[in-house]
Amino acid sequence: QVQLVESGGGLVQAGGSLRLSCAASGTIFRINAMGWYRQAPGKQRELVAHQSSGGFPNYADSVKGRFTISRDGAKNTVVLQMNSLKPEDTAVYYCNAEALATPALTSRGNYWGQGTQVTVSS
Q1: Which residue among 14, 43, 67, 77 is least crowded, i.e. fewest CB within 10 A of its CB?
Q2: What is the mean pLDDT of the chain?
């Protein structure tokens, strides 16, 4: 099993910045990808940013140019730097990882953190 622990959420005024961090631990052979999703009240969970190993990051159109995702493969961590925050960025942010627990492809799993609240006031 893989555990994901997030940190860094909070309350910020519009135009401000926050930095979310996520660390993976547990039985990990390889992490194929890590990313961030968010869910606002009454809305579906949506992709914010995602980066696979050896690949380029991809972002939701709504955050391009404002958010930056960065992974540290050696430490199994991922960071989301959020700048120029807007009230519509208010949501619970979830860390996600696609990982293999063993070399067997059958051990592949999709894992979620517990979520961290980001609130942007206008």
Answers
A1: 43
A2: 95
